[in-house]
Each structure stands twice: as structure tokens, then as C-alpha cells.
Amino acid sequence: MLKQLKRLLFTAILFSLSACGLQFQNGGLIPPALQTLTLESSDPYSEMAIVLRKQLQLNNVNLVESQTNVPVLHLHKISTNDKVASIFKHGREAEKVLLLEVEASVKLPNNTTFPISAKVNRTFFDNSRAALAKSAEKDVIWNDMREQAARQLITKMVALQHQVQK
């Protein structure tokens, strides 16, 4: 009886929240000075640049071409690495730790530069018997890590709010 009551209450709350049009607000925390910026990268079509551009747009940041009075988010260095975490009895790699490091900087129109960085790591169980499936899984994990790193960079841009307002 108590279990059914909890389930009914949870369902009622869920329906009321979905019916009232509750939506999470994207981009509400990004400082107004950083709402319009230029994204620069040595390779603008790299996977990390594309993911960062998408995350910025999801957070209502207006991306423009290079202008004089617009802050610049510059991607400096993107490094990926994988390290063996464990091995099978036969000496083959069993588990790896995937590492992604992104270094960037935000340059304001007054030429003040703030370095920001993001580090993401994940474990990956590597089974050589299912090489094709594991390769596809590894690609999905790398893409998820890039999205997480982009969100970390945006969060660090939000943290720059006090420096930007000075």
C-alpha cells in the first residue's frame, strides 16, 4: 500500500512538472560580456571544436567571426592519451584509462587573457575478442568525454564573471 502511494505521488509530481512547461534555463549564468564571442582553433573542424561550438550554442552564446570588440575563446591544446590500468592473465590489456585534456583561454577586448582548462578521464574495458564493437564503444566514450570537457570549459567561463565585470 505504501509503495503504491509513493509511486502515485511520484507520478503526480512528474506529470505536474511536465504539464506546467518547466524547462531548464540554458545560458542564464554566462556573463553578458561573454554572450557574444569568437571561437578560434588551429583546426576549426576538429571534433573538439565542433563539440565546443555546439555546447556554446546550446548555452545561448552567439558565435561571430573575428571582430575587435568581441571576446575570443581560443582552443590552444587538445591532448588525448590512454594508459593501461589492468591486464589479463595472458598479458593482454584488459582495462584502459582514457584521458582528455583541453587547454583554452578567454581573451577580452581589453587584451586581458584568462586561461581555462578541462580534464576528463574514463575507464574502458578492452576485450580483443569483440574488437569492432569495442572500437565503436570507444568512439562513443571519446565523444562523451569531449562534451563533458566542453561543459567544463563553459562552467569555467561562468566562473570568470567577477573578473569580466571589473
Description:
- It holds the Pfam family LptE.
- Keywords: Cell outer membrane, Lipoprotein, Membrane, Palmitate, Signal.
- By secondary structure, the chain is an alpha/beta fold.
- The protein has a single domain, classed as Double Stranded RNA Binding Domain.
- The protein contains 4 helices and 5 strands; from the N terminus they run αβαββββαα.
- Helix 2 (47-58) links the parallel strand 1 and strand 2 (62-63).
- The longest helix is centred in the C-terminal third of the chain and has 29 residues, at 131-159.
What is the gist of this entry?
Keywords: Cell outer membrane, Lipoprotein, Membrane, Palmitate, Signal. With 166 residues, this protein is an alpha/beta fold. The protein has four helices and five strands.
